[in-house]
Amino acid sequence: MRKNWKIIGSALFLSVLTMAPALASVVMTNTRVIYPANAREKSIQLTNQDSLPSVMQVWIDSGDDKSTPETAEAPFLVTPPLFRIEPNEGQTIRLVFIGEGLPQDRESVFYLNTVQIPSLDANSADQNQMIVMLRNRIKLFYRPTTIKGGIERATDQFSFSVQQEGADWRVTAENKSGYHISLVNAKVVSNAQEFPFEPSMVAPYSKADWVIKNPGHPMQLPMTVNYSFINDYGGTGQGEYKFNPDTPVTDK
């Protein structure tokens, strides 16, 4: 039995490279996972909303989006790593931290991967059928007990600066908290005019920047950066950073 499961897994990952857009029938209750450092384990619930069974494979990587269970490196154990989920039923997977030596003043980010291989339709067994492998990848945050306040309070330690670079603006965010802050729907508002940009996640105690190409407008006060950030539950919170005469809004 163990050998058969290994063969299935290998075939599954060869096919994952040819994934196509599709609607997954196996859904996860989480859009991100928070693993407290003092937790013995973390449980994740999967539900098969289809009328056919599916085979699922699960693994965790440290940032390589091309990883497989054979190549992924992460200090977590996932059980079960490979399983069949029946129609309209659920399956709980358990994550257990088995590592050591991670920073205790900040979160560490990993990625939880799930791959779904749906069953073939028995009524169409004599016809050619295309099997589409569905891969989902969400963030997993290992959170030490030493960082306090929560993600909402972390934005109090979040600041922005804007520099003029020729015809462009460079927007820089500085995160002075121990949390990863994932930004969405950000925009600079200068003198009542809006200039959106596409932000990303800003790691703890680090900076990230983005360029607004040729806004065609001089930087003028009053000026703010309005943004949304993803909270622990996958929802969004709202943030606003107000510039004042002492805030870096400069020509470069």
TrEMBL record:
Source domain of life is Bacteria
Q: Where is the Pili assembly chaperone C-terminal domain?
A: 174-236
Q: Which UniProt keywords apply?
A: Chaperone, Fimbrium biogenesis, Periplasm, Signal
Its annotated compartments are: Periplasm
* InterPro entries given in the database record: Ig-like_fold, PapD-like_sf, Periplasmic_pilus_chap, Pili_assmbl_chap_C_dom_sf, Pili_assmbl_chaperone_bac, Pili_assmbl_chaperone_C, Pili_assmbl_chaperone_N
Q: Which residues form the signal peptide?
A: 1-24
A GO-annotated cellular component: outer membrane-bounded periplasmic space
Q: What is its main location?
A: periplasm
Task: Name the GO terms of the biological process aspect.
Answer: cell wall organization
According to the entry, every stretch annotated as the Pili assembly chaperone N-terminal domain falls at 26-147
Homology family = Belongs to the periplasmic pilus chaperone family.
Q: What is this protein called?
A: P pilus assembly protein chaperone PapD
Q: Which organism is it from?
A: Solimicrobium silvestre
